Amino acid sequence: MSSIKQKSITLHDVAREAGVSLITASRALGNPDRVSEKTVARVQAAADAIGYIPNLLAGGLKSRRSRTVAALVPIISVQQFLPTIEALTAMLDREGYQLLLGQTGYDRAREAALLNSMVGRQVDGIVMAGLLDDTPAKARIRAAGIPVVETWDITDDPFDMLVGFSHLGVGRAVADYFLAKGWTRFGVATGDDKRALIRRQGFVDRIGHDVPTAAVPAPSNLGSGRQAGAELLTKDPSIRAIFCSSDTLAEGVLTEARVRGLRVPEDLAVCGFGGTSFSGHLAPTLTTVHVDGSRIGSEAGRILLARCRGETPEEPFIDVGFRVIERESTAGR
Amino acid sequence: MSSIKQKSITLHDVAREAGVSLITASRALGNPDRVSEKTVARVQAAADAIGYIPNLLAGGLKSRRSRTVAALVPIISVQQFLPTIEALTAMLDREGYQLLLGQTGYDRAREAALLNSMVGRQVDGIVMAGLLDDTPAKARIRAAGIPVVETWDITDDPFDMLVGFSHLGVGRAVADYFLAKGWTRFGVATGDDKRALIRRQGFVDRIGHDVPTAAVPAPSNLGSGRQAGAELLTKDPSIRAIFCSSDTLAEGVLTEARVRGLRVPEDLAVCGFGGTSFSGHLAPTLTTVHVDGSRIGSEAGRILLARCRGETPEEPFIDVGFRVIERESTAGR
DNA sequence: CTGTTAGCGCTTTCAA
DNA sequence: TTGAAAGCGCTAACAG
């Protein structure tokens, strides 16, 4: 197979084949209501017959709409964001938009570079996992007038639109829940990323005093979860309840507890974060803070597409909330 | 923030600012070796000063290179492919390419539609998770001369380039391993996707007779793994060794076995597939078939980029192989 | 080393 | 309802 691209079939060919002008062919395919039904049918037939595929770069150059949206995540393997990406992609696809994926690697220089690259690609919108970092790219995005949706976090000063929830609130809610259960000896197992540390902060604030903490590099995984669990249980064997910054981390703590002969929840209570589907199928089932990542993706897609169509979404600032789901790992009191 | 895009800063502005012609500015930024160092410096300075970001749509229209690559996966939440996507994205990014992500949803009509859309976006290459389905889009891709890398599978008749391994071989290897251990009562827990079923086929072939099988919908998860485990252990309590089509499924089977009071591996041996990082941190640690998904991504990126540069990769058909990693879940004989 | 010319394929604007 | 003209912002090809 040769990599030389033969000259492709253009709208010109379709027009000739259908016996109409270039622009009529364009309209027949793009704005069928502005052309007679008969003509539309003839152009459609011609396009199908010769296998025409419109060049979206050319169209986008003139119309200034690339029908492309950028999504930036730290690393794609951070499972948290997968349902969001999945829902976003599905929603965009339905409207003929495609998703450009970028990985910042938790690095603001790379984030800035990626954003510039996305601006250069004339994306019609940007969805961020998290808040936009304070880089020079910010000004360019504003200058270019590109709609942005920040997600999975909340702030008083959003760049543009936002779909998220309060991580501080999550930490507090878990602390309240633990306190309501009457426990007194707490620990935290956390990834070292910004939002996880904010959840920890909320937890500590509400508990009222500092709490033994094991921090592992983000993204956390089962192995680092076991490690964090081991660290906490070694450092302070009297710990009775552990708040984990992800369900995966929590699974590691559960595993480590089991290996050490600790019963959950009798000897140790464990709470995760994320509300992943697997959390309900562990043994014991895992208490977690559920966040509707899929909804974040579809809401973000919805308000972004609205703005792409030139509308002004009635509510460009959506708090999807969260809820503590009590399961076996903290039950029984 | 308004969605009206003000007229953007173009190369024209840079040229004027630097006091050179348009094309010299273009070369200074794109092919610096064809322009005097002094001019390059001046143009660079001008571009930086006014915050110029090149319009890649415009450049791509003329040069017929969009610096964009499409990656098609069934669903992004199928974890198997994440390391591949991650490595691919990272490699592309280093060369200034971006990744367009598409989800086929295991549906060939959607796959065909997505491929057409990607062709229309003038992608410079396509990476498929799995083999290209036999759709009309195939002919168009060939006609457009777009390089394609099929991954995670193998065939005698690849469309273009390929980086994968034999699923039949995986099934056989696990059967050989089980047989070498001297076991005789087998079961299979599998997702219902094509490649998982081929692995099962290889397993059954080598075992020499049909084997109790629990099939769950792809993508499999911890819950469906527990379900499959329950189904197998109920249907045939004498089962002694289970081959699972993913590590996640295997984790479900391990969990179900534990809940039922079965010891692994004493009462039941379990083997997964994928070689995910978590498999080594379960308790018991999970025997699995390791596949280097990250390498698949980087090799695919490498040969694809080579072709984008007009080179002919010396080896456009790479078998990355696999290997059975023995761990506690099948140890002890 | 630098510049001029001519488009890439499509859609907007204006006119019929 | 249809068409002609005029570019979108950039780069390939050829001159100078």
TrEMBL record, chains A, B:
Matching entries from CDD domains are given as: HTH_LacI (cd01392), PBP1_GntR (cd01575)
Pfam families reported in the protein's UniProt record: LacI (PF00356), Peripla_BP_3 (PF13377)
* Matching PROSITE patterns: HTH_LACI_1, HTH_LACI_2
Asked if the keyword Transmembrane helix belongs to this entry, the reply reads no
Question: What region holds the HTH lacI-type domain?
Answer: 9-63
Key words, A-Z: DNA-binding, Transcription, Transcription regulation
Q: Tell me which SUPFAM superfamilies the record gives.
A: lambda repressor-like DNA-binding domains, Periplasmic binding protein-like I
Q: Which Gene3D superfamilies match?
A: 3.40.50.2300, lambda repressor-like DNA-binding domains
Molecular function via GO: DNA binding
Protein name, UniProt field = LacI family DNA-binding transcriptional regulator
- Which species is the source of this protein? Achromobacter seleniivolatilans
